[in-house]
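hey so u asked for the seq, here:
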Amino acid sequence: MMPGLLLPLLAAFAAGWLAWQRESRRLDVRTFDEPRGWDTTEEQFRQRVIELRKRRRIGAMVLGALAGSAMAGIFLQMIGLSDGGTG
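ran it, C-alpha cells below
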C-alpha cells in the first residue's frame, strides 16, 4: 500500500522540479522578437517580461506536478488491474 501512495508523490515532485528547472533557464534569456511599446522604458519592459516568465514558470511547475502524479496513478492502476486477474 505504501508504494501506491509514495509513487505519485515522487512522480509529482520530479516532474514539477524538472519543469521548474527548464523554465528557470529561460528566465533571463533575451529574445529579439518581444514587442515593446514606445511609452515604456527598457527597465520597465524587462521587469514586465521577467514577471510574466516567473508566472509561467510557476504554472509549468504546477502542471508538471499534476501530470506526473496522474501518470503515476495511471501506471499504478495498470499494474493493479493486471495483478487482479491472476488472484
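The first helix runs from residue 2 to 25. The mean pLDDT is 81.
lmk if thats what u needed
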